[in-house]
Batch of 2 targets.
Target 1
Amino acid sequence: MPERLRVLGGLDLGLLWGNLGVSLLVVVAGAILVPALSLPAALVAILVGCLVGNLMLATAGAIGAQARVPAMVLMRAPLGTRGSYLPTTINIVQCLGWTVFELLVIATAAAALSDELLGFEARWAWTLVFGAAALALGLLGPIGVVRTVIRRVAVWVVPLAVAYLGWWALTGGGLDEAWNRPGEGGLSTWQGIDVVVGVTVSWIPLAADYTRFARSPRAAFWGTGVGYFVPDALLLALGAVVLLTRDIADAAALPAAVAAGGLVALLALLALTVAETDEAFANAYSGAVSLQNLFPAVSQRLLVVATTTIGTVGALVLGLGSFQSFLFLLGSFFVPLFAVLLADWLASGRRYGPEDVFGRDGVRAGLVAAWIAGFAAYQWLSPTGPARWVEQVQRLDPPAWGIGATLPSFAVSFLLALGVVVASGRVPARAAGT
């Protein structure tokens, strides 16, 4: 990243990540925690999980800002150039899948609005409209999105919409009853923390795509961590409250329920729907940037057009529940991948130079193995993915430890990767203190 493009300060990145954190899907994720947990226990899980998850996300952002390269190019340092191709491919598929999913959610919310106001849904038309909006944002790029959209519009509109949604949830009645209602079981507080961490760190494989524009690693760390923490914690908590007071637990039902609350509710939902377009933009943009790790000579703008078009077409022909479990399977690769990156970066003296990123042409097999071991630990502890995959993993008799899988898989890959780096003798002089 040339110095002239490193223009985003901590506030800019805070606004960017704050806007990315405002999503109806985050609200729904919070609803997963209850009624298995009591509301007080769910709020503890949200607070602890957000602190841990956002620390990890902020660190990933800071590493990207220090190295000044996109996320999947950054993976060349721990895994080698050819070793980075596997996570890059997985990330491309993941980004395309989430682009489809986000456009489906946005179009569903817009259809609920138009049905309430105009008497028709026309979800296909809204899919095209918001697909075009995501493409426009992708062509603007992160700097343009921050300067022309977030600073001028979203920073004023989105907080008001979130505040109204909070008021709508808290005034639905039954809050005292919800607070004193005991948990029904089936989920421990540690598992709740693990769920929250998993929701938060889903952005890690995209973080450096945006923080490479940061003025400094410090700005990237605080802007990313604090910027995402605030909406992350608020909306997850809101999701738990909404389920208990309004009995709404899925993304498809939430827009219609909010829209039925009157004109102000409709305006708030419209603002949140439009704001969610940046999630579709971020996934399509990062899919394009990841493709450049495989095809560096291809124009980024052309790749943005391609990824957004694929996402829009997918949203037109697929349903909300048709492939979500597959995306969760792909997501379980990335926490252990970040653990490998962090271990190698720390062992490299907390700094990656150009020679670390572009001077490792082969495959660092030991670190690839540490990554795969973490993925295996994740799946063993919490089989995740399509039903057939889960059935096969469950034959290995996963333990019922009640601790989740995100943090244990991180620990497995981190410790293995650190051991591989130290044993290989590739710790540079600046890290060894000589």
Target 2
Amino acid sequence: MKKEIIKVGIIQASRTSDVEANHRTLVERIDSLAAQGADMVVLQELHESLYFCQVESTDNFDLACTIPGPVTDAYSEVAARNGIVLVTSLFEKRATGLYHNTAVVFDTDGSIAGKYRKMHIPDDPAYYEKFYFTPGDIGFEPIDTSLGRIGVLVCWDQWYPEAARLMALRGAEVLIYPTAIGWESSDTDAEKERQLEAWTTVQRGHAVANGLPVITVNRVGHEPDPSSQTNGIQFWGRSFVAGPQGEFLYRAPSDEEVATIVEINTHRSEQVRRWWPFLRDRRIENYSGITKRFID
């Protein structure tokens, strides 16, 4: 990274059906974090609206935006005005009938530094994302910014070590995961705790295995199921920042909105990779099986 100490702003927020109000509150919080010295601000997955994927409805495609377009123009202005790198997560309308779940990164001058289209698309009860999103076709390519090279992945991608590794092998200096994940109300408290800890542990593992900081920003609060077939999703918050040994630098609560700044010491990645040279010791000549669906 270009600076040894990066001040990362994270915004863990609840959402409403009022898209314009959601946008206004986010901009206010971005401005506030920038005024407090943030170099970068990271937003949660699909932050402009409620998590519409609880149901399959063609009307929800009206929420999508073009890239570039009015929504990206607005965030471009915010990034430029504050001189920050801004990581957003948008419902992209690429063409009629073709949509993606897309992270867009703005540089400090307001330009679009790059985008990442979510590669792994879930299809589970209350997470009907395959109805809406075509899997990404850009690949696992880091995005170059004035702060350095960042590897942005989105939510379901966070369960796949291959995605994190490929970002690291292409020179990402930090891994960032905008996220929308929560509990199903019928699960027991013990099961909810297992899910939360598994989610946290796998991402901390990506930090350790690749010697990189990980920034994960989740939404929070309850969002009802419009179909009333379930009790909706209780998003579990717990946004966090981990260092290159998986150590917690910050962990948000499960039931509160958060707008805070976390400092990342980028020099630590260099030191950790010297102590633990995992990339050096990889036996790449023996890994061909990883590209198979299953080895019978």
